[in-house]
Design brief:
single chain, about 200 residues, alpha+beta, seven-stranded mixed sheet, 10 strands, about 30% helix
Amino acid sequence: MTAESLTLASSSPRRRQLLEMLGIPVRAVSPDIPEVRRPVETPVDYVERLAREKALSVGGRLVLGADTTVVVRDEVLEKPTDAADALRMLNKLQGRTHQVVTSVALVTDETIHQATDVTNVVFRRMDPAFLEAYVATGEPMDKAGAYGIQGYGAALVERIDGDFFGVMGLPIRLVLSLLERAGRPYRFGDRSGTAAVTEVR
């Protein structure tokens, strides 16, 4: 078995941090893929296509792509265009249940392995000043649905039903399952805390 670096086709620092938390060697490359939903695509079809396209767009023997979107009452909420757009999204979400859809695609040996997570998230009801103060932090601006559950956005959430890491943008259990299917099982490292994806030969 030999250690192998994973290429992450994403500009998201959160996804990279989750992989590094597990000790997986990561090389991050920003994919240049337009995030535009096609008229006939369901939200799941959309994130699955983008995850595949991202993984296929960068070089590497082992490439992971991912995409996340937020869906409320069949409306897809992507990254806000400005503060007013972020506030509009948060007002739609408050007091309601929405879905966070995250798909991961692993490309290796010209094979695509893919899995998708859907998690229900319930927001608290909040007054306008609270939401405006959250938007003023700047945190919502690079996140689907205009919030980050791992940051200040935790204050907006009443409960979740599903995978917390999927809401963050990288369902770890699915990533490890894909690595296993691709013949690159995750192994814990030594006492120094290092770990790796290993190639089985």
